[in-house]
Automatic annotation (TrEMBL):
InterPro entries: Glyco_trans_2-like (IPR001173), Nucleotide-diphossugar_trans (IPR029044). This is Glycosyltransferase 2-like domain-containing protein. GO terms for molecular function: hexosyltransferase activity. SUPFAM superfamilies: Nucleotide-diphospho-sugar transferases. Pfam families: Glycos_transf_2. Residues 4-131 form the Glycosyltransferase 2-like domain.
Amino acid sequence: MKVSIITINFNDLKGLKKTIDSVQRQVYKGFELIVIDGNSSDGSKEFLQQNAHLFTHFVSEPDAGIYDAMNKGAAFAKAEYLYFLNSGDDLHGNDALDNIIDHLDGTDIVYGDINIVEGNKQTIKTAPKQLSFRYLYDDLPAHQATFVKRSLFEKIGGYDADLNIVADWKLFALAVIKYSATYKHIDPVFSNFYTGGISSQVDNSDALINERQAILEEEFPILLVDIKRQFLLERKLRNLRKSKRIQWLQRLGLLDKF
């Protein structure tokens, strides 16, 4: 078995049905499907029970939050790669898995791009082919388009369930920086991400920054020094661009734009 698809749900029956339907419509069938439901009261539990034949494993019971649930799903997984597609999101076309399966060649992390859907607006979010600490400081490839080797996930210890928002970011950063995980980017848009999740809510922006900063100070203090130095240089560069003297020299052709 190549891929374990893990779906987390809590009181989102409509989203759960959409996600499961997109998985079942895949041309490629060499996957197992694991659903972890947090003891929902909206009919999700009954839906899972009535459609048990669709799932390799499912459970509906209280959990300690989304990352605890994702770890629980990973513990049931048997395939080489883990892929988290949570309730409400779906795969981008019926050939999404078929397009990526040949790229799961032993590389520790394989990631693609996602289609962000916000009402009637759709935006493709691309991830870089070459990762850097500067990129990871602010962002990470979306977990809805990321495949992680189960052995690597277990080596790191899974998601830090003590975190509320950025446990996926912590795992990815640890994998690439601390554990020197191999990785590669693939081009096809892999999944559709519908805004509204906890990491996309503006009200959580301060909490997100605080959690991420604490991880950086704990796990990557030396790299954080370099990042702060780079931020200072970037600020100076922005100020130079705003300088009227610099702009005047550029208009005269005596200084190239930078």
